[in-house]
Design a protein that fits this description.
The protein is globular, with a radius of gyration of 20 Å. The protein has 10 helices and 15 strands. By secondary structure, it is of the alpha/beta class. The protein starts with a strand and ends with a strand. The chain is 30% helix and 27% strand. The strands form 3 sheets. Strands 3, 4, 5, 6, 7, 14 and 15 form a 7-stranded mixed β-sheet that branches. It has a 6-stranded parallel β-sheet with strand order 10-9-8-11-12-13, with helices on both faces. Helix 3 crosses helix 4 and helix 6 runs parallel beside helix 7. Bound molecules: NADP nicotinamide-adenine-dinucleotide phosphate (NAP). The site of NADP nicotinamide-adenine-dinucleotide phosphate has 28 residues, from helix 1, helix 3 and helix 4.
Length: 328
């Protein structure tokens, strides 16, 4: 059986993507088949499109790391869901399509009151931010956190998670994106294009620094991040947007301040890991989504016919929060 999906004629620019025919997936024993109503764009998709980020072994070749939609078929051993249920969840690939399969344990119910588009904007960035802030950095109430790229998808999720944990929040972002970050709960916003963020943090914290940093920029920020962390500080590195290679770094602050430097990815994690993370996020955040205290931040929703435009938009760093792709 065939379905429609975003296909790639060759690795390269966004214009290489188009809606085409693809084999419709069949759910395995404990998988559910979901009619995808919406997915969302991630930087990883833009890298995959260029041939720089191949899907992990066994994952769909189609782009798309998350989806929201309706359960339309159940694998033979599925017990948790029934046809017609509305779910969202993390995928290792395959979201840019009419249908996607997901293990029944990894699927999450769409929080009550949220649209499918909003639900599609949750999994990747909220799971990433929750993993970094809660599981890895173990942020505590009253601590200080610096979230780089505060207006990014992961950043806007991270600000809200840190706020709910009672932290004092510092972010870096381009100036035009500061107001949104403040509304979400950032206490201090730093325009990294006109100011040295490490000097600003020294000023704001009277030299004490921050307990936790969530970083996406890597090499260009590494030394400054080490200087910005307080004693027993923790840093989680999630991307290499600046550059992966640093020339000369003074590592002394790691010893002197007893720092923990961590890195993580989500896509290639085991099913067990992703399921436990999803369940923990559900426990932490679903009632907050349902009461409206936290929300997926959507910049723009594109129809999937305009997927090329959506990729260009992300690559131009225009978005604040998520870019959603509506599958029709
Ligand atoms: N490790 C993981 O598990 C994991 C999971 C999800 C995402 N990620 C990665 O995390 C990053 C953020 O993802 P996202 O979807 O939240 O991104 P996004 O919404 O596309 O936002 C990225 C923002 O980062 C800022 N930025 C870009 N290049 C920069 C640079 N060189 N220096 C400083 N700021 C820069 C830009 O905002 P400004 O206008 O403020 O500069 C840009 O809009 C991506 O690299 C993504 O691949 C990692």
């Amino acid at each position: 059986m065939k379905m429609k999906a975003i296909t790639l004629k060759a690795f390269g620019p966004p214009e290489n993507m188009a809606i085409g025919d693809w084999e419709k997936p069949t759910p395995g024993n404990r998988e559910i088949l979901v009619k995808v109503h919406a997915t969302a764009i991630n930087r990883a998709d833009t890298l995959q499109r260029q041939g720089k980020y191949p899907p992990p072994k066994g994952a769909s070749e189609i782009m798309g790391l998350e989806m929201a939609g309706e359960v339309v078929e159940l694998g033979p051993d599925c017990k948790k869901w029934k046809k017609g249920d509305l779910v969202c969840g993390l995928l290792a690939g395959g979201g840019y399509a009419e249908f996607a399969v997901i293990h029944e344990d990894l699927a999450l119910p769409i929080p009550k009151g949220l649209s499918v588009e909003e639900a599609a904007a949750i999994p990747e960035v909220f799971l990433t931010a929750f993993q970094a802030i809660d599981w890895l950095a173990k942020l505590q109430g009253g601590e200080k956190i610096l979230i780089h790229a505060g207006a990014s998808g992961v950043g806007t999720a991270g600000i809200q998670i840190a706020r709910e944990k009672g932290a004092e929040i510092f972010i870096t972002a381009s100036k035009s994106k500061h107001e949104v970050c403040r509304k979400l709960g950032a206490n201090y916003t730093i325009d990294y294009q006109s100011k040295e963020f490490n000097l600003e943090i020294v000023k704001f914290t009277q030299g004490k620094g921050v307990n936790v940093i969530v970083d996406f920029i890597a090499a260009p920020y590494f030394q400054k991040n080490l200087e910005t962390l307080s004693f027993d500080g923790r840093m989680v590195m999630l991307a290499l947007m600046g550059s992966p290679k640093a020339n000369t770094i003074n590592l002394a602050p790691i010893l002197r301040k007893r720092l923990k430097i961590m890195g993580s990815t989500l896509r290639a994690r085991s099913l067990d890991y992703k399921t436990r993370l999803s369940k923990d996020l559900e426990k932490f955040a679903w009632s907050l989504f349902e009461s409206g205290k936290i929300k997926p931040i959507i910049d723009t929703t594109f129809s999937w016919e305009n997927v090329a435009e959506a990729h260009h938009y992300m690559e131009a760093n225009k978005n604040i929060g998520k870019i959603v792709l509506k599958i029709t």
